[in-house]
Design brief:
Chain lengths: 287, 405
């Protein structure tokens, strides 16, 4: 029984990465209608950015949590301005192919220079060590990851669903022409939104740097699962992807305990089941 | 220069005068089949192709009129892709010899094909000891290391040091299974006990669930029967979950210098494991490694897999040179290679047994503390050596049909 609690908690930790990443994807899909396959590569860039900040500029983990998402977010906005914006109104497939290509190029460049084994990034001193919860030894850093990502997820949800800025944004995706008539700069808003989604990916990258090796392929390994999370949660649904992210982390964690061999397929099995029963995803609305 | 040109002419003249007689065919095609993009690409990958290139340059065969081509491809760690490339290489590209072929799943697939088509594989990357046991072939030489040797050296040393209860974290494919099986045999034989095992998918990024299970088992040794990125992430996360601090010991059954480099000494210090090559062993290894690292992008030292590609090709070229031409008959060339002792600067003197096992000493290393390291890539302390004739599975235990008993 104790082991079960431990697995639930560990699942929640992984779920927080899924939630952060799928949230970014959901924001981008919901607002820009782009299936952002470059998300994994941008997550990886976030981790590398933290690594460079530490090893070249001597800037530690805490500032990196803010700087890396901004830097990578700006990179994302440049991508949006120079390439993605021309795809508005075209079939989803174009955006998917373009971002997939970008992901391959970015990963290839990083792999060319840094190899595949990855680079070390240490846990910040303040978050070292762990606490004995009785049923498991919880590393403090992992606890921090769960709480921090939960806060970020809820803040993003609040921003988009409950504020005036979010309302404008949602309106702009429904009817850009009308919103523009109210004097709102729609293209700039779209660019900033893409930047926000990308920033969330980079933030997840920084959070994961001390846990996993900083590797060029760290995003490629994760992105397929995250896409499954988004599909299960319902494409474009903000709260849906947050809840599904955490829930799937837990389900995956339990699988790792009961039948570890299936732990990397369980998410896809669930995806198939959900698509069969409810093709719009658990919380998605019909298009 | 003048010499080389005249030698080329001489070679050409000889080839022409031989009138295309088979024995005088002086064309060789080397194929490096490896992981160029995935989790094992640092320990094989482009470095293996570079090692092959260096072996070709150092062989001096070009000056004797030989023409050697080198191609390489990425098998993406998928046995079906590896087999498709291998088939095409043999049928269309006329590749004579396959080098590297890391990943045991791919290696076993290519092993069958190479035998069927009478080509050659010098495997320097895959770990499974089946390549020279039940699956042995007259066309395959297993050059650098195998699961039996790793288990025998590291496993035995750890049990002797008091680690008599084991829990395995095993990569769920041919390699992990073989490594777990061979290590279990050694642990049990040395008086230890295996109290549990968990199989994780290849290329996992999160090991916390598995580590918690290992922790709960209270085994003295947590044996990592995985490799590459899987091992480095396991080690890193084990330190986070306080596995070592809690009194359990991590056993890296297969670690490469690239993994240690990637982890950094702070995390990797104190790990002990077995390799058959280290750049800083002697003058010969240092000289080769210096030339090698100068030609890599990030000044990396060669892994034992890459060093094996060089060493294996050196012996292959020597054999062909002595034969006077390339008969394009894999089994025949491999039989010749088994007759002659091997000798190169990297692995020293050795030999190839009837079952295709190349033998040389195995070294038990311990990773240095950061304070002991004198500079980049100065990572290992040698703590034990198993002589060549004891390092690998004895022929008396072999299930290979090529071994006459």
């Amino acid at each position: 029984m104790q082991a079960l609690y431990a697995q639930l908690l560990v699942g929640l930790i992984n779920g927080s990465f899924y939630a952060l990443l799928s949230l970014g994807l959901a924001v981008i899909f919901g607002m820009l209608n782009i299936i952002n396959f470059a998300h994994g590569a941008l997550y990886m860039m976030g981790a590398f950015c933290a690594y460079f900040l530490l090893n070249i500029a001597g800037i530690g983990y805490w500032p990196a949590l803010i700087i890396a998402p901004i830097v990578v977010g700006i990179f994302g906005m440049i991508l949006e301005r120079t390439m993605l914006q021309w795809l508005t109104g075209l079939d989803h497939l174009y955006g998917l192919l373009l971002t997939f290509g970008i992901a391959l190029i970015v990963q290839g460049v990083f792999q060319n220079y840094f190899g595949s084994s990855g680079l070390p990034y240490a846990i910040p001193d303040e978050l070292r060590g762990g606490v004995n919860l009785g049923f498991m030894f919880l590393p403090i850093y992992r606890g921090w990851v769960v709480i921090f990502s939960l806060v970020v997820c809820l803040a993003t949800w609040y921003l988009i669903e409950k504020t005036r800025l979010g309302a404008n944004l949602r309106a702009a995706t429904e009817n850009p022409t009308l919103v523009r008539a109210f004097g709102i700069n729609v293209p700039r808003m779209i660019t900033l939104t893409y930047g926000l989604g990308v920033g969330l990916a980079a933030l997840a990258g920084v959070l994961s740097a001390p846990i996993n090796q900083v590797r060029p392929l760290m995003g490629a390994d994760l992105i397929i699962v995250v896409f499954a999370v988004v599909v299960i949660g319902g494409m474009g649904s903000i709260m849906g992807s947050i809840i599904t992210g955490f829930a799937l982390g837990v389900i995956e964690g339990l699988t790792k305990y009961f039948y570890p061999e299936a732990s990397n397929t369980v998410v896809f099995v669930l995806m198939v089941l959900v698509l069969l029963v409810k093709p719009t995803g658990l919380t998605g609305r019909a298009a | 220069m003048k010499h080389r040109i005249s030698a080329l002419f001489l070679g050409a003249a000889l080839t022409v005068s031989a009138g295309g007689a088979l024995a005088q065919d002086k064309n060789i095609k080397v194929g490096v089949l490896t992981d160029n993009s995935g989790l094992y690409s640092d320990l094989g990958g482009a470095g293996s192709t570079l090692a092959a290139q260096m072996a070709i340059e150092d062989s001096g065969l070009a000056a004797k009129g030989w023409k050697i081509d080198l191609i390489s491809a990425d098998h993406q760690n998928k046995p079906d892709i590896g087999a498709t490339i291998a088939r095409q290489w043999i049928d269309v590209e006329k590749v004579d010899i396959f080098m590297d072929v890391l990943n045991s799943g791919v290696a076993l697939a290519v092993n069958n094909l190479v035998k069927e088509k009478n080509a050659i594989m010098i495997n320097t990357g895959a770990a499974t000891s089946d390549l020279t046991n039940a699956q042995c072939s007259p066309n395959t030489i297993h050059w650098v290391y195998d699961t039996y040797m790793l288990a025998n050296s590291t496993g035995q040393a750890l049990v002797k040091a008091g680690g008599d209860t084991w829990y395995f974290l095993t990569a769920d494919y041919a390699f992990g299974h073989a490594l777990e099986r061979d290590t279990t045999a050694v642990v049990v034989k040395s008086g230890g006990k295996v109290i549990g095992t968990v199989k994780h998918p290849l290329n996992s990024s999160d090991f916390s669930s598995f580590l918690l299970q290992a922790q709960a088992s209270k085994a003295k040794i947590v044996g990592m029967a995985n490799a590459g990125g899987d091992t480095t992430n396991t080690i890193k996360q084990a330190s986070e979950f306080g596995i070592v601090a809690g009194g359990q010991k991590l056993a890296g059954l297969l670690l490469f210098i690239t993994d240690v480099h990637s982890l950094g000494l702070k995390v990797a210090q104190g790990l002990s494991f077995t390799e058959t090559f280290y750049w800083d062993l002697n003058d010969g290894t240092r000289a080769f490694s210096k030339r090698f690292s100068e030609r890599t992008k990030n000044k990396a030292q060669p892994s034992m897999v890459q060093a094996g590609v060089y060493s294996g090709l050196v012996h292959y070229f020597k054999t062909l040179d002595a034969m006077g031409g390339n008969p394009h008959d894999g089994a025949k060339v491999v039989a010749k290679m088994k007759e002659a002792p091997t000798d190169d600067a990297l692995f020293g003197k050795g030999s190839i047994r009837a079952d295709g096992r190349k033998i040389h000493p195995a070294y038990l290393f311990e990773v240095k503390k950061p304070s002991e390291s004198r500079g980049p890539w100065d990572y290992y302390k040698l703590i034990g050596t198993t002589p060549a004739d004891q390092a690998f599975r004895p022929l008396s235990e072999s299930a290979c049909p090529l071994v006459k008993k």
